[in-house]
Amino acid sequence: PTGEVLIEKHWRKVTSRNLVDLFLDHVNEADDPLDVLPVIATSSVYLISVYRHRLFLLCVVADEVAPALVVEFLHRVLDTFADYFAQVNEATIKENFSTVYQLLEEMCDNGFPMITEPNALKSMITPPSIQNRILTAVSGRSAVADELPDGTVSSIPWRRKGVHYNVNSIYFDIVEEIDCVVGRNGQVVSCDVRGELACRANLSGMPDLLVTFSDPWVMRDFSLHPCVRVSRFENERALSFVPPDGAFNMLSYRVDPAIFSTSTGTGAGRQFPNAPVPIYCRPMVTYGPNSQDGRVEVLVGAKAMPSRAGGRPEFQLAEDIAVVIPFPRTVRSTDLKCNVGSVLCDETTKVCRWSIGRIPKDTTPKLTGSFTFLPDIPPPEDALTMLLEFKVADTSVSKLTVSDIAIHGESYDPYKYIRSTLRAGRVQVRCP
After folding, report:
1. CA–CA separation, 120 vs 105, rounded Å?
2. What is the 3-state secondary structure (H, E, C) of 143-181?
3. Looking at the predicted structure, is the pLDDT value of residue 269 above 60?
4. Please, which residues have CB within 8 angstroms of residue 337's CB and are 6 or more apart in sequence?
5. Which residues contact 393 (CB under 8 A, 6 or more apart)?
6. Residue-wise pLDDT tens digits, 33-44
7. Which of 75-89, 119-133, 160-174, 368-382 has the lowest mean pLDDT?
8. In the prediction, which pLDDT does 357 show?
9. Strand ranges for 308-414 from DSSP E
10. What mean pLDDT is predicted for residues 140-166?
11. Is 420 helix (H, G, I), strand (E, B) or coil?
């Protein structure tokens, strides 16, 4: 990170910029931005941050507050930015700084989270587009509405009145991410799976939906959208709700890690032989006799995924496969070649990315190459840790599926579509 402050917003009182320098000291000490502690305590304030889209969102809190509330709010802010600007990066933040300030004003009032529902925000603040900018320039009207949305003062603030579609449809996406650590012996020593049920509802009127699942009791530590009736979900594991108009995240959960492990307990020796990783990664790093250079070799291939029902393991078609190799900062140069895909190295951050895509049927992807250290710099004591990325369509670890969707209050039968996706969250592979 460059340390440049793109946008700052103050509530109640002005916060000193010196706290940003203090936070950047912690960022520079970390090997990876994701390793920065989300909550940093100082003598007078708390620094709470999230890292996404290669950007830090930092919140300075002077009083006691639940850290999870602040972290959730920061993620909601970034989700709203992504909904408004399609992409969240340094360029889009600078180009739409006025919209960013308007969103922060509505989402947080005097330091308290207020309107965080994207549908309500879009009714108040027009998303930036070429057409909207031309209309604003010609008419001279502000992009901020003069009146509050219809649903603000109703019992269902997340849905506006008078919604009408010529074609009614509802889509469900079950997306599960796996975080795991593969030890030097190739065994998974840590495994955690997080899931999310995303929904896009294009329904007319005021429908009341009931969604039931097959085997929903695999979900743990779930969190629900405000539209879901909590008591019924706790008793029946069924979703009863009046949906917002458009896209929203209805449910997030964790999968019980016990289904991946053959041993009990939570000790350091616990292993997860049934971890749902569809590919293997076998790295090998060696150093030269003078410890001033080294060689790296990485093999990647398909691996059968175990079945929760105890059936025969099956191979799954993985897509968007990539291996990220973060070399130490003491590395001067790298020379890497691969037989499948392409490899790019950033000489500034010393991070190399090997993009494979799909694994060919007749070739085993292999990466080989060498690297050199700066003069008189010994090799690092810690072994390299590589990151593995992949995506598997029409697959979920929990085998959670939507069994039925019932609609009440409206007479139409909407088009329904359900799909599942498994992807890598933070899969670390330790080099021997």
Report:
1. 14
2. CECCCCCHHHHCCCCCCCCCCCCCCCEEEEEEEEEEEEE
3. no
4. 343, 367, 368, 369
5. 317, 319, 419, 420, 421
6. 888 999 999 888
7. 119-133
8. 92
9. 318-326, 331-338, 342-346, 351-357, 366-373, 385-393, 401-408
10. 69
11. strand
Q: Is the pLDDT of residue 354 over 90?
A: yes
Q: Tell me the pLDDT tens digit for each residue of 162-211.
A: 889 999 999 999 999 999 998 888 888 888 899 999 999 999 999 999 99
Provide the strand spans (E) within 225-347: 239-241, 246-255, 279-287, 293-302, 318-326, 331-338, 342-346
Q: 153 with 115: CB under 8 angstroms? A: no
CB atoms closer than 10 angstroms to residue 237? 15
Position 395 pLDDT exceeds 90 = no
User: Can you tell me the distance from the alpha carbon of 58 to that of 17, in angstroms, rounded to the nearest whole number?
Assistant: 12
Q: Which residues pair with 58 in a beta bridge?
A: 49
Question: For residue 106, which phi and psi values (nearest 5 degrees)?
Answer: -85, -35
> Three-state SS for 359?
coil
Alpha carbon distances (Å) from 62 to 19, 73, 75, 111, 289: 12, 16, 20, 11, 54
pTM equals: 0.79
User: Is the torsion defined by CA of 222, 226, 228, 230 positive or negative?
Assistant: positive
- Residue 253 burial (10 A CB sphere; 0-12, 13-18, 19+): buried
CB-CB contact of 19 with 10 (8 Å): no
Structure tokens that stand for 217 in this block: 């009791």
The pLDDT of residue 157: 77
Residue 33: how many other CB atoms lie within 10 Å: 14
